[in-house]
Predict the structure of DUF4332 domain-containing protein.
Amino acid sequence: MRNFIAQWFRKPQSNPSPGTIVDSPTGRPQAQPQTARQRRMEASLASLRLLPTGVLRQLESSGHRRVQDLLRLNLSQWATEQRLTASQQSQLRTVRRAIRMAFALRAMHPREAYLLIAIHRRSPEDVASDSPRHLFRDLERFALSSRGRALTRRIEIPSLERVSAWIAAAQDHQFSRLATSHTSSASDTAGVSPAPSGH
């Protein structure tokens, strides 16, 4: 796995206690992210290597440098202010969707999610319903297309083993959501008093 992708999965360094303040590379104290999710939210957009240079510079010049900035951005308003083309807006939305999928499936990098979106697997549910070999074959076929060749110059096709890990993570995610929904429904039902019989 390439170093910049491996960085996404790197475990946070353990700190003496939550919220510990340490010296930053600039010499100024700064709080370290405590969880993998927090660290990934703090990752720079540049480190994802997904955005065109021009769009990335526009984001950075507007103060949107981190993953969390893009997730919280009012994209329609910002795109209008920056006079982005329809193609640039579509690409930004796809990158944001890829980031959200990678957050949902912790075994996945946003670049890998971006590749899946290109073959119409746009959500964890789409991934969960697939089989490893079928999804892997679709990726291989996509890599032979003109668009696929262009994209796989920047994003390599994953191994069958990684595809299997994504599907397992997507199924776990789906099961977790169903379990949470069932628990919530049960709690709501338990809190409702039976209606009087009228007798």
